[in-house]
Amino acid sequence: MPIRRMLERGVIATALLMGIPQGAPAQSPALAGELVIFNAGSLAYPFRNLLKAFRQANPGVKTSQESAGSLESARKITELGKTPDVLAVADYAIIPKILIPSHADWYGTFASNALVLAYRNESAGGLEIANYNWYRILLQPGIRTGRSDPALDPAGYRTLMVWQLAERYYRQPQLATLLRAASPPRFMRPKEADLTALLQLGELDYIWTYVSIARTNGFRWLDLPPEVNLSDPAQAATYAEARVVLPGATRASDSVEFRGEPIVYALTIPRNAPHPEVAEAFVRFVYSTAGQRILADAGLQPVVPPSLGGPGQPPLSLRGLFPTSGTP
Q1: pTM of the full predicted structure?
Q2: Cα(292)–Cα(301) distance, integer angstroms
Q3: For residue 137, how many C-alpha atoms fall within 13 Å in the half-sphere facing its CB?
């Protein structure tokens, strides 16, 4: 089924499951104040559009958006003491591993994605690359392949997982090690947006990124097999064979392990959010038909149905959004 049709069906199904009426959600005309959002770099574009639509429905709200790698965004809360109204991350697991129980009580899933290899027509080897030879091309001398920093961004550690899974799938011993050597630190950046700019300028031939990023930037991209690209829930057991251990922000003993899983985005309203009423209204908008349509238009696939995770409960006004509980 074409991805566009899948996205549209997902949006409609979400509306039916949640009982949300078609069209923009009704917001209180008296809603006013501020709204501070921390979001994953891969959510910069869709959340900018979500905030624009939310302001149109609530002209009394002043919004602020900070886009960064999801781990970096979470550590702004845990290490710097900066608390947003809403945190949206590219890997739901960041919230229970890093923020719960000290800084958050719950999280809700809202979208999924796939990891791809993006490139341009002018990229070296771009006219011959395919899903059966891509790793051979990336290993050729002079090929410049960018990736994001795994210590800051889920796309970074997911890239390492994709390499591990590719090694098994293509039966190429040491492939993950070779690919890592072929994408050295000088081709690594904190988040996807930095890589996108370098690919656009021709400073890189290929970048490991999400299909949503490739689509919205007009890049070509290589679809990897579902056993490799971290997009298929049916492959969860296969993905779990990949693992990455990241050092702690301040101490090696605080290291965090991530295992391969289908890509699932999540959001939460942290404890002590400065503007909780506005935050709740924005979260309702994200899960509305209009909000889900904005996500789909940005190349994300809405999670149907969304699930609720964590030991606590969201505010009462949000509980009807989540028909299922537990990790994805």
Answers
A1: 0.88
A2: 9
A3: 18
